Amino acid sequence: MDCIIETRKLTKKFGTFTANHDIDLKIAEGEIRAIIGENGAGKSTLMNMLYGILEPTSGTILCRGKPVQIKSPRDAISLGIGMVHQHFKLSPSLTIYENIVLGTEHVKEYKLGNRVIHGVLIDRKREKAEIQALVDKFNFNLDIEAKVSDISVGAKQRVEILKMLYRDVDILILDEPTAVLIPQEVEDLIRRLIDLKKAGKTIIIITHKLNEVKMCADNITVIRGGRVIGTVPNDDQTTDEDLAEMMVGRSVLLRVKKSGKPRSEKIAYRVSHISAVDSEGKKLLDDVSFSIHENEVIGIAGVEGNGQTELMQALTGTLELTEGCVEIGGLDVTGMWPDELRRHALGIVPEDRYRQGLCLGIPVSRNLIAGYHNQRPYCVAGIMQHQKIAENMDALVSAYDIRLGSKDPPVGSLSGGNAQKVIIAREFSRKPKVLLVSQPTRGVDIGAIEFIHNQILKMRDEGAAVLVISSELSEVVGLSDRVLVMYHGQIVGAFQSDAVSFNELGLYMSGVKRMDREAVSQD
């Protein structure tokens, strides 16, 4: 096959930091190429240069064998390069066909003798015909007159792809394309990508999900530390473990191993019929109930935006409940603030580590006691005990493998994985009876994921009741004893994690199926 896109010694620097260093890459026409690597490895920077969002510091980009300068997305599209971003760029109030043609609308034309006069009104009939033909050509199964606000996440993904196909791109870049899709939508997307390849399109996928890479890629390029580590064919000789080792630089255990220790009969945490509304009275949580036993992990699965964030806020005292109560060991803790909850042995790992879990400008040592800073042994009679704080940091940095560039740097200088480890160390080291963990490994590299998963399971085996909320379905199922599914602010399904398939969970996550409330709330 002919090479359709190539980079030679492509380098991108931000000040003294080199995000991409001498990247050499060749992608053949009509192949599906996966670009994988840890967070911060330089994958998105490379793709943003190919799409004209960033300009290279040095090096060359060749398209169909000719050197090109790509200074904007408009330049990229003119060369046949399109990109679908992880966060969709659609207008919810417009229809599907209006979103696809946005910025390239057709105006009505009128014939006056031999002349064609362009009017000012949009030729909607022509636009609809063109978009319907495009949908039919690629079998994308969409109602082009439906509003984007009314369609599923998977359908929105297809609309984004059609936006690029409408602009006649031959090279399609997809950034984390399955991040918010349910299992059925993932399988559907992969089938469509394979069909696009058969139609002659070249697909480049940026992802960290190795199982999906193995389902569709022809070749896999691994980037680590801004450099290409290697490109390997996607065949039986290349395993997930091989790819993970290339990404991290050491062997990694990809699948968590549970101890098999049975849960206790004692309920440590009970949530009873809680509800919450927003400022306009719209229900965010609707009669949510569940219990967690000692030595048990409960996982919450669901497409993002279905109440998981609000549930965590309600359970940690930052969202006011309109109904219901929350108990720790039989004690009513409804509406308590986080510092009060911590006094009742509740640990909190928030969804957004930088906004809710850490103070970026202060040292690691102080972040390791945040929320506990006014308690002994760190504070006695209002006086901070600096020696105890330093001893605590030394112990936790060692026990939780937190990598520091200096003795006690600002936590904002750490990598995402090490910043997350600071929160994990702070909360887990207090040996809480109940542990609430939201998005524990978001933006974290594979090596740190392995460590964090093992720490969560260790807490479970030591007697804690653990709630895990994650957008990664494999993470929820892998860590949990039981899985609850949230949809539109309600718990609509409850399953033993070892007795349910991803496809079955997907039906509940999309609202196609639901259990009655009594079945869901059973312990």
From TrEMBL:
Keywords: ATP-binding, Nucleotide-binding
Pfam families in the cross-refs: ABC_tran
GO MF annotation list: ATP binding; ATP hydrolysis activity
Ranges of residues in domain ABC transporter: 5-250, 269-513
Entries under InterPro entries matching the protein: AAA+_ATPase, ABC_carbohydrate_import_ATPase, ABC_transporter-like_ATP-bd, ABC_transporter-like_CS, P-loop_NTPase
Cited PANTHER family: CARBOHYDRATE TRANSPORT ATP-BINDING PROTEIN MG119-RELATED, GUANOSINE IMPORT ATP-BINDING PROTEIN NUPO
Protein name, as recorded: ABC transporter ATP-binding protein
